[in-house]
Amino acid sequence: MNRVAICAVAQIKNEPDIWYQRFQGMVLECFESIVRQTGVTFDMEQGIRNVVTCSDDVFDARTISDNAVTDVVGAHFRGEEKVAQDGLNALGYAAAAILSGHDDLILVMGHCKESQSESRLMNTNLAFDPFYCRPLGLDFLTAAALQARAYMRKAKLTEHHLAQVVMHARANGARNPYARDNPPVTETDVLTSPLLADPIRQLHAYPVTDWAAGMLLCCEERVHEFTEKPVWLTGFGSCMDSYFLGDRDLTGNFALKRAARRAYSMADIADPSTAFDLVELNDAYAYQLPLWAEGTGLTPEGSGGAWIESGLDRVNRSGGMLNGNPIMLGGLARALECALQLRGEAGERQVDGARRALAHGTTGAAGQHHAVLILER
Amino acid sequence: MHPNFDLSDCYTIQGKLALPYTYFAGSVGSIFLTTLRDRRKIMGIKCHTCGKVFVPPRQTCERCLEDIRDQWVELGDTGTLENFTVVRYADRHLPRRPPFVLGLIRLDGADTPLLHLVAGVVVDRVAEGLRVRAVFAAQPENTILGIDHFQPL
Ligand SMILES: [Zn+2]
Question: Which structural domain, as residue segments, surrounds residue B49?
């Protein structure tokens, strides 16, 4: 069977407000870095003929948001497809395009500038239908708060557990030069942080962030042309849960379990709890880190609290989404960290000898959609 | 990151997306919303295969894939608060000033909890298991706000 690898990754630093640069400029920096790293061209025989972009119309305030970036991602005069879900799905599309034989090389580029709109929450309110949910003001924070309350009760998760997750994110973020610069926090800071939507406090929520990133994916035959250190994508799965919160078991990880099972079977993984040298979970809110750990089978259902107590050593070395990545790109950021780790390029936060990693992404309210990607060196 | 260029001539402009829409509520949704508005009744739809009663209503059972669009059942206007959050921030998309309560209410006769506002109770006294009753809107409303809020029995 054909195989597909990440040949290069590029990113700008996660920042609270890149007001002085258009998102096109943010993406262009990543694009130029990938060209420099790999020498890839836009020759129609040997170069990039297809690009997958990831962006969101409402965050960009223009429909067909990919129209705004095609020239700066090299998609001019060639194939381009847009993913308007978490960027991990863009990697899924790109991998499928290569494994199917549609193309040899795919460039994946994502951007999101959360700081552009007055309110990120108002923005996510628009994700809901205008009849039953939007008029009530539901947004991704309040949806998460409902999930957080149900999950904390089920897993006996305490405020101390959540504080530990936040401190872990900040400590790891501080060792990642591309992570958002956040002040270090003490347990007391987290425990006394203002409540936004009970039980979620301000420090339990990911901060508003601007970011862009890119990756070059290639088929096995040609991988040597672009890198000495390919990172193989060996499993991918995704699953969409019900739309209405009341239709879902908010603590049961239905969609994540299915997405993970699909990815594990593709990558021949029997026991996820011992299979990975590092995992990157898309924790937009602190309670989600243990919840997603249960859904990916890293720890048994309902044991998220004990899992946090066990140390989180090889979890979210990047700082995680909780330290600051924009919505849309949380999963892409997780995969990017896994790729750096597997290439041995993660600096101070390097997991020595890392061979296999899991990256996870979510789209929608309270993890309606999940994607899981397995990466190997 | 600091920009590597002079910012003195850089500026930002203010803008806004504001576009009026007309949404069709769907043939099933129209019945639900007009019944709520005109008869002050909350209707659910029952799947006869698995027995599940859905609200908001829908055309197909997601598990059995049965067409259930005509299988209306009248639900009570009372129910039990199963989960909630106290919203403590202000924003333009929110229907109330903070603090207010957004909850998942399992109406008597329904299987899927319905999202709605809970009022008429001190926010710090709200707890799961609270029995609540729908308070219908004084003026006709064409959305789920045909119920103004739920309040304790
Ligand atoms: Zn059914």
Answer: 22-152
